[in-house]
Here is the input.
Amino acid sequence: MSADPDCVAAIRFTAVHKWYGSFHVLRNVNLTVGRGERIVVCGPSGSGKSTLIRCINRLEEHQRGSIVVDGVELTGDIKRIDEVRREVGMVFQSFNLFPHLTVLENCTLAPIWVRKMPRREADELAMRLLTRVKIPDQAYKYPGQLSGGQQQRVAIARALCMTPKIMLFDEPTSALDPEMVKEVLDTMTALAQDGMTMIVVTHEMGFARQVADRVVFMDLGEIVEINAPQPFFDNPRHERTKLFLSQILH
Amino acid sequence: MEFVAYVREASEPEDLPPPLSSGTLLWARANLFSSLGSSLTTVVLVALAAYLLPQLVAWATSHAVWTASDGAACRAHQDGACWAFVAAKWDYLRFGSYPLSERWRVDIVEAIGAVLIVWLLWTNAPRRALGALLFFVVYPIVALVLLHGSSSLGLPIVDTLLWGGIFVSLLTAVVGIVFSLPLGVLLALGRRSPLPVVSLASVLFIEFVRGVPFITILFMANNMLPLFVPETWTPDRLLRPLIGIVMFSAAYMAEEVRGGLQSLGKGQFEGAMALGLNYPRMMAFVILPQALTFVIPGIVNNFVGLFMDTTLVSVVGMTDFLEAMNNAIKDPVWSGPTIMVTGYVFAAIFYFSFCYGMGRYSAHVERILAKGRK
Here is the structure.
């Protein structure tokens, strides 16, 4: 199924359209993400940026066009969807940790049942990744006992435990108290430096400037502008981009 | 500049310690005598209890007839319970018409069942997986062979016509509980399925069974099931009402479980899917453990209802405990004015103790599960 990894892009959207009922939420989206590339997606709320990245692991289905992830085209075929989801990690705005499992169990559940990893090996992997996000001492607590920032770092570790090729972040800091935003962004920056392919929907323009290879600006379901961070912020080409940037960069 | 300091030379008078916030007297004042109205209510109710309770206790103990060989002694002591009647009928109440010489088989089945159920319900028990395997796989086979008999093992066959009493009540309740929960979970999942055929079938089943009285289900299971299968496969007359009770209880269980599924946010489903867990694993490890925990009170409510409903199987000719009691009460040897009251009070105590136990156990489990999450 997956072709030669060197010549195939990590993700390729070709003329993708999506409707919620009669609401046209994605309009003719074309985007190619290379391996190891860090993309930040921004735009006003309701612009379709969350929908865009949720299409990548088929939490939302597109109705027209094609999406190819790691050489696998997403269709209704459940086998292909599972194949893509195994290789694509996702971090949500609201964490979505499993409250009835400990932090460690949250991290080992998928490696054990999806990757068929022996429990001991999965435990070691999880502890290594929890150490990487700097909370190994919370491994035996339940998510409800942690702060928001800690929960989000657990969510990142949980996604990493599947050793994904691509990581999706859907507004990972939007539900956090301001003092916890930094610890999560630092974790994500470290991940980017390790060469992970990342697509991040965020309002954190400082992160975009520092980490992104390209910034994608969306409005009304369309990709309005794609550019490297420096020209994107300093010389936006499009009026809508200028308006958006003037609203969020005070 | 002159420095002026104000220094207090004497200590403030010490405050009294705060009034006690606990203690029997304080509790009584706060809860029983907080106002004139509640004081009056307390006094009246205590007086009523003081008048009635001793009579009740005397009826059940000192005035009761504990040993007698027939009803004569009970007829002579009409102010007390006739426990001698229960004692004399105890074997019949436990076994119904099960042959005297074979009743040890029922004893063994009950003893093994009790041990296994305690093993399963004891939340800290060692090797509960083994207990579950024994209870759900090995035990049913052993119980069937022992209760029904097997000519190859030299155990005489005992027709289910002869089964009766407490062991039939417990058998019905355990079979109902063990099968209705998983079936209810499947129906609840089926009802939410995106596949139209599955969801329609689940909805039809649930709405049909819920829309019909239990007695009707029992009659249908008893009289219609044999029409649907070839004559040689006709289900046993004990099995038919069991199927009826499982179907009936499963429909209610399904709606209970569906409530639990709906209380879970979309995020839990998405979190599981994004990790690559397929549908069965997502349900087994993420969704159902949470959904079922939310609805433990409702599930236990259904179990209690099911236990009470087992008394209805007598309408299709099964002799459960209550029916056995009805039969025993009609015995002319023991006829007397106190027999019926004694019999039904005893039956009430029997049913109450099981249902109260279920309620306490579910409260215990809820506390344990709540401790983990906070």
